[in-house]
UniProtKB/TrEMBL annotation:
Gene source species: Streptomyces himastatinicus ATCC 53653
Coiled coil (residue ranges): none
SMART domains with a match to the protein in the record: PQQ (SM00564)
Name of protein: Putative LigA
Boundaries of every Pyrrolo-quinoline quinone repeat domain copy: 98-262
UniProt-listed InterPro entries: PQQ_b-propeller_rpt, PQQ_rpt_dom, Quinoprotein_ADH-like_sf, WD40/YVTN_repeat-like_dom_sf
Membrane-crossing residue ranges in chain numbering: none
Pfam families for the chain: PQQ_2
Length: 285
C-alpha cells in the first residue's frame, strides 16, 4: 500500500509496517518526491525534483521489488496527475503528455477540447480518456486528441430545463460509471459511450444533501457501485442499476452546521463508510 504525502512510503497493509521509504525521495534528499502519478504491480511512477540540473523536474519509473530506478525522463513543471494506460503513462498539466512505460521516451503532447484544468478525468486501458464537461460526459480518443468521439448528457435536472453537472467518472474494466448532481447514476461503454443503464434515485434526505455532486465508487470485483453524498450512501447493482440498500446516519456537523461528506472505501464484500468521527462496515450484499 503506497502512502503519498510530504514523502512517499510503501506499507504492509496487514501490519502497517513500512516496507519501503527511499532516502533519495525524502525532502532534502537527492531527488525530493513531488507527486505519485501511478502504480502497477511492483512499479511506481513519480514526479520528483532532481537537484543540480537544468531540468529540475523529472519523471521516474521505480521498481519497488529491486529497489532501483528503471528510467528517468525530463518533466515540465505543473504535470502532477498521471493515468496509466496499456503502453503509455499519460501525465496531465495544462496539456496531456504521454511517456513510453518501458523506456520513458516521450511519445506525444496533446490537448482535448473542453478538458481544462479542474475537469474530472479518468481513462480506460484501451485508449479512451473520459471527462466530465459540465452536464456532459465525454469520451476522447487519446491517440487522436481534439474533440470528443462520444458525448452523453446527464439524465437528471437540477432546475427547469437545466441538466445537472457530472461528478468525477470512474472506470472499471470497459465500463465507465458517473453520477450527476440530480442523483442520476450512469453506466456507459468507456470506448463507445453506449448506455448500459441510467437510473435516477430520489434521495430520502435530498433536502440536506448539499449542492455538491455525489461521489461514485466501484468495488474491486466490479459488482457494486456506490453513490455517496453529504448524508447518504447508496449501494447499486453494477449489472443493471438496481438499488440494493441505502445508508444514512446522524453524521457530524462541522463549522456553521455543515455536514462532512461521507467517505467510502470498498472491498469485494464490505463498504467502509467514514461519517464524522464514526466508521461503519456494511456488507455489500
Amino acid at each position: 500500500m503506497l502512502v503519498p504525502g510530504t514523502r512517499i512510503a510503501a506499507l504492509d497493509p496487514r501490519t502497517g509496517d513500512i516496507e519501503w521509504e527511499p532516502e533519495e525521495f525524502r525532502s532534502g534528499g537527492r531527488t525530493p518526491y513531488a507527486a505519485l502519478l501511478a502504480a502497477e504491480g511492483g512499479t511506481v511512477w513519480i514526479a520528483a525534483e532532481r537537484r543540480g540540473g537544468a531540468d529540475s523536474r523529472v519523471l521516474i519509473a521505480y521498481d519497488l521489488t529491486r529497489g532501483k530506478e528503471l528510467w528517468t525522463s525530463p518533466l515540465p513543471d505543473g504535470f502532477d496527475q498521471g493515468y496509466l494506460m496499456k503502453d503509455v503513462l499519460v501525465v496531465r498539466g495544462n496539456e496531456f503528455m504521454a511517456f513510453d512505460r518501458t523506456h520513458g521516451a516521450r511519445r506525444w503532447t496533446r490537448s482535448y477540447k473542453g478538458v481544462t484544468a479542474g475537469r474530472p478525468v479518468a481513462t480506460d486501458s484501451g485508449g479512451t480518456l473520459i471527462a466530465s464537461i459540465s452536464s456532459d460526459l465525454c469520451g476522447y480518443d487519446v491517440a487522436r486528441g481534439g474533440g470528443p468521439s462520444w458525448t452523453v448528457p446527464a439524465k437528471g435536472e437540477v432546475s427547469y430545463k437545466h441538466l445537472a453537472d457530472f461528478g468525477p467518472p470512474v472506470v472499471h474494466g470497459d465500463t465507465v460509471y458517473a453520477t450527476d448532481g440530480a442523483y442520476g447514476v450512469h453506466a456507459l461503454s468507456a470506448r463507445t459511450g453506449a448506455v448500459r443503464w441510467q437510473r435516477l434515485y430520489g434521495l430520502v434526505t435530498k433536502a440536506l444533501s448539499g449542492a455538491r455532486t455525489p461521489d461514485t465508487t466501484v468495488s474491486p470485483s466490479g459488482h457494486t457501485v456506490l453513490m455517496s453524498n453529504d448524508v447518504e450512501v447508496d449501494a447499486i447493482d453494477a449489472e443493471d442499476g438496481t438499488l440494493r440498500w441505502r445508508f444514512t446516519d446522524s453524521g457530524a456537523a462541522g463549522a456553521k452546521g455543515i455536514v462532512a461528506r461521507r467517505r467510502v472505501a470498498l472491498t469485494d464484500d464490505l463498504a467502509v463508510v467514514i461519517s464524522g468521527k464514526s466508521v461503519y462496515a456494511l456488507p455489500l450484499r
